[in-house]
Structures are given as structure tokens and as C-alpha cells.
Amino acid sequence: MNYRALAERLLPGNYPSLSTYEELYPPRSLAKGAEVTRLAPSPTGFIHLGNLFAAIANERIAHRSGGILYLRIEDTDLKRKVEGAVEAVIKALDYFDIRFDEGAEIGGDETYGPWYQRQRAEIYRAFVKHLIEEGRAYPCFCTAEQLDAMREEQTARKEVPGYYGKYARCRNLTEEEIYANLDAGKPYVIRLRSMGDPEVKHKFHDEIKGDITVPENDQDIVILKSDGIPTYHFAHAIDDHFMRTTLVIRGEEWLSSLPIHIELFETLGFERPRYGHNCSLMKQEGETRRKLSKRKDPELSLEYYRKEGYFPRAVKVYMLTLLNSNFEEWYLKNPEAPLDDFKFTAAKMSKSGTLFDLDKLNDISKNELAKLSVADMVAFLKAWADEFGTPEQLKYFEDEQKLSRALALCMGIGGKKRRKDLTTASQAMNFIKFFFEQPTAFEEFRVSAADRGCIMADFLGSYCYEDDAQTWFSKLKEIASRNGFAAEMKDYKADPGAYKGSVADVAEILRIATTGKANTPDLWTIMQILGEEEVRARISALLNV
Ligand code: GLU
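# glutamic acid complex -> structure
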């Protein structure tokens, strides 16, 4: 067969010689040991925890080694493309401090761009043409119906699905048959002529999983689709080579494609990057563990963390805890250190499924938020509210002094120990809501309406904003005594039958009346922050119902 003529017929015209591309995209001049890593998402608009997991690993490995992290957009499949997806990826990762050195919408060293695969069609075609010339790729005219029938047959026979061996019908078409098909205008794709035998297995060193066994590939995969755009497999091999990638950390769902990728790199004559396949994130459900699912688990999407207002460092701390087995111990010793000081390594990454536990993340979040200063907390909440807050919530920031006092109280600043009530920005904004909005819902009062009324009226009669905490509390005790409640807890405990309740119940009535909640930080301070008028207004409002 005259492969040269066939290549010219299939991809006519002059393509630059392959060595031109080697010159265009020369090896990077980086220090020895510097790793070039990448994130290569499809622009589907959905970016998830698994992506963040891989992104943190790639980012750490690149930057710790003085290398490069770049963003490549694998947009060969137009059907999956969503407007604004690239910006969404960048924004989602930026939240967690993942910064790219170059890539789509990032810029950087233009030498290795463009970073959208659709803009690189010529390079791919040049290499496809070369493979056809070498007899390592061929046109396939199989129709969708034929391929469906093939798959059905393979399923029925319990055979490996795909285009290989006797199923690779177009692999051995004669020259006449090929030209007849082309002359008849039949649509075609270009397939790789695989040389592998899956019975033959090779040892492969995975940077995370260690030594594994990988069979050879025998699938004649499509490398160029009928629209002249390559498939992901083919494009990624070309790109990882010419973008001079040295290490790929990606999800283990790509492990099954590894034989294909190995063969592609060999066929193209490229040195391949090292690979590390990180384990999937699992969720405990009763007795069983399952992969986090897009449909069932909103926490899989990175958008969830921004919307809820998770503190980025907390998420990163948790991710690092899951990613590197020695991180937790390091963090205990270095709780204040920049996370980038941790010596991250691929070798310490978990080899099998990792359990993702939202409760654990929430605990870490509480701890991390409890470390913030009030000013940092205000800044964090403001950034969240600017994007996700309600108009009412945005008003909280108009009186920064009040907001700071409210937050200081809720964070336990100035108290004996910091409180850990706040988990996320949205939860914190809800937590402080009663300072800024009159409560409309009230937790249940334990005392009868009649006694409540008496106590509230009594309180309003003796309330003086200038009273210090002690005086204020003495007055509460007097109110207790006057209304048949024990002023001292110990008296109540000694003889509960003798009282309607204790001073604690009196405080609770006032607490629920002013905040809506039975559990809050110190009530005297809350009243100080609310101001006399507001306290009176809130309690009076309940008196009149
Ligand atoms: N485009 C693939 C994805 O969507 C990238 C796989 C790889 O990292 O090689 O995840």
C-alpha cells in the first residue's frame, strides 16, 4: 500500500515537518528536578473535589520543585462544552489558592500555547498524517450502526468491548476498498493501528500506586474524528509532549486508559511523562463506601464550598490531610505555618480509596475560623456576602463597629477561650443574624405565657442600659425572686418543687425574646451590642402578643 499517497489524500497539503514542532516547543529551561505539571479539564462547567484533589497535588509538586503548573483546556468534544467554564475553573481553584503559571485565560510563557486543544488542530493533524504515512494509522468507514452491532455482539459474547482484532474491520481494507470508499464520499475517522497484545503485561511505576502491572493496548482507538478534530487520548499525548509535561497526577479513573497512552507515546516516539493516579474520594453510607456522586452529593462540586462559604484554608487543610499521610502530624506541630511549607510528595499519597467526611471538614473549619482575628473574619464574610449574600446581609457591613463587636462575641474573643461555633460564611451570617434583624421565629419557651409576660414586663421596668454585667444579673435574680423563681441555682436544685424555675429560666426567656434562640453567647453583651432601644423594642413586641 502506498501510505504516503493515502496520507496525502486524507490530509492534503503541506504540514510543517515534525522536527519543526520540536523546535517550536523546545524543552523548557528549568532547573534540574523542576516538575512541569498540569490540569487538563474538559470545559464542562462542572469542577469537583476530585479536580481540586489533583490540582493541589500538581500545584504543590510543581511549585515545591521550582517548576510550572499550567492549565490546558481539553475541548475536543464540543458537545460537552459550556460557556464560561474556563473562567469557572480558574475562579473555583483560585479560591483555594491554586494559581497557574501559564495556560488558557492565564497567559504566561506563550511558547507552549495555545492551551485550548481546538486551537492546536494543525499540530495534531500533522502527526496523524505522519502516522498514516508510516502505516500506523488508517481510515475507518464503519458506521454508527455497525459499531453498535459490534458492541452488542461483544456484550452477548462477554468479550472485551472495542475496536480490535477481528472486530477491527477497516484495519485490513485493501487500497482499492479504501479509495472506493473515499470516492463514494463515505465519512471516516482515523484510527491507530495498535501493535499491542493485552496478554503481554509490563511493570509500570506509578508515582502514587508504586509498581503496577499494565497490559499492552490492542484497541485501534480513534485518533482523528470525522470533523478533523482529534480525540482526547491523541491530543493529550501530543500536548503533554510539546508542553513539556514531566509529571501527571490525575484521577484513577484514567488508569484504564493508561495502556492506550503508553502505546501512543511509544508510537509517536515521545518520552512520556511520569504518571501518578490518585485514588477516588469515597463516601461512607451505612456499612458501605461508594464514590462521591455528582447526582447525589452536592458537596462533590467545588461550587458548593464557595456558595456555602467554606474557609479556603480549612478545605485545603482537609484535602492535604487526605492527600498526604504525614500532613496531619506536621500540621499539629505547625498550626500557624503557611501550608506551602509542608513538604508534599506524591509518594505519600494514599494508594486506595479515600474517605471524604463532611463532618470532619466542618470540624476543621470551626478550628480554622476560630483562629481568625475579627478584622480577618469581617473581610472573609464580606467577600462571601458580596457574591452570595442577601440584600439584608449586605447591610450588616454598614455598621462595621457593631459587626465587629458581634463577631468578637461570637468568636469568644476577650473571653477565657475562643468559641468554635462558626463553620462557614453562610452559617456565620445566620449565626449573627439576630444582631441585625429582629427575630421572627422563636425557639420554644419552657415557661408559661403568663409567667413570661410578668418576667418580661418586670425586666423592662428595671432595665438600665448602663448597668454593668454584675448589676444586670443581680436584677435578673431579683426578678426571679419576685416572680416565684429561685434566684440561686443551688436553692432551686435543693428543692425544685418550691419554685416555678430558676434564674436560668428567667435569663432564657429574655434570651429567646431578644435573639429568638435559647443558646447564644453572653446575653448582657448581646444587649449591649443591640442597644437599649432595640432591646426594649424586641421584648415589648413579645409582650403585646
Ligand atoms: N481531560 C481529562 C479530564 O477531563 C484529563 C485527563 C488527564 O489528566 O489526562 O479530566
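# post-check
The CA atoms of residues 151 and 157 lie 10 Å apart.
Residues 40-42, 74, 232, 236, 248, 250, 254 surround glutamic acid (CB under 6 Å).
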